[in-house]
Write a structure and sequence with these properties.
The protein is largely without helices or strands. The chain is 5% helix and 0% strand. The protein is elongated, with a radius of gyration of 23 Å. It binds zinc ion.
């Protein structure tokens, strides 16, 4: 994903090993007239001209008006873009490793294939943005808003998505291995074939989300809302759904071996053909639930409501 097309000349300051940034013969740190450089960038964007593949390493563009900027394949590693307006920007394949995008407006931006490893994106607006195949490993998306955004096959392991809003977002095939999604909103999100193994999703809202064939091995969904969510053929061994609201959830043919479903509300849920071997169902509400053909050998069914 990382493009190595940019070969910026070295910084003209003696003893500096950094490369020069766009429109300067020096790196950002050694550029004397920073205001002129920033004004020049805004002028290019206003004119609608391209900045694709330019180097803007560590440049401080925070709060700048860059809506619709063409930065395809640009090097923005460690750039400061907090509070900037990058709505509708073209950032496909851009290098944004460790960039500061906190509170940045990225609505409708195209970030497909961008490298956002370790990026700070807290409270960023990613609604309707395209982040397909992005590297978001260890990125911070705390309270980010990503409604209807697309994260297909994105690499998001170890990311922090606490209280982020992914309502109706498409995360099909995304890897969220060991991610933190405590209190995240995933209402009607598409998570088919996603990898959520070992992720922490305590109190998350997954109402009517689609998680068919997803890997949820050892995932913590304690107290989560999974009403009407689809988990057909999902791998959910050792999942923690204790106290979860799972009314009308569809877990047909899901693997729930050693799952913790204690005190969960499974009223109207479809557990037909599922594997519930050694699962804890103590105190669960199974009113109107279907468990036909389910394997419940060794399951703890004490105090189950039927
Ligand atoms: Zn320098």
């Amino acid at each position: 994903m990382q493009q190595d097309t940019i070969q910026a000349p070295p910084c003209a300051s003696s003893g500096c090993y950094a490369n020069a940034v766009y429109s300067s013969d020096r790196c950002w740190e050694h550029t004397a007239d920073k205001a002129a450089l920033l004004g020049g960038i805004e002028a290019v964007v206003t004119k609608g001209d391209s900045l694709s593949c330019v180097s803007l390493v560590k440049v401080d563009l925070s709060g700048r008006k860059l809506a619709g900027a063409v930065l395809t394949g640009a090097n923005l590693a460690a750039a400061k873009l907090s509070g900037a307006d990058l709505s509708g920007a073209a950032l496909a394949g851009a290098d944004l490793r460790a960039a500061d995008l906190s509170g940045t407006n990225l609505q409708r931006a195209n970030l497909s294939g961008a490298n956002l490893e370790g990026a700070m994106m807290a409270q960023a607006n990613l609604s309707d943005a395209n982040l397909d195949c992005c590297n978001l490993r260890r990125a911070n998306l705390h309270k980010a808003v990503a409604k209807k955004a697309s994260f297909k096959r994105a690499e998001m392991s170890y990311s922090c998505c606490v209280e982020a809003d992914f309502s109706q977002a498409d995360l099909a095939g995304a890897c969220l291995d060991a991610a933190c999604l405590v209190g995240a909103v995933l209402v009607e999100a598409m998570l088919d074939d996603a990898i959520l193994g070992g992720s922490v999703m305590t109190g998350a809202n997954l109402e009517r989300a689609s998680l068919n064939r997803a890997n949820l091995i050892g995932t913590c969904l304690r107290g989560a809302n999974v009403c009407g969510a689809q988990f057909k053929r999902a791998r959910m061994g050792r999942i923690d759904l204790a106290d979860a609201d799972a009314r009308d959830a569809v877990m047909a043919r899901a693997i729930l071996r050693e799952a913790n479903l204690a005190w969960a509300n499974l009223a109207g849920a479809d557990l037909s053909g599922s594997v519930l071997e050694r699962a804890k169902l103590r105190g669960a509400d199974l009113t109107g639930a279907s468990i036909s053909g389910a394997n419940t050998s060794g399951a703890d069914m004490d105090g189950v409501t039927r």
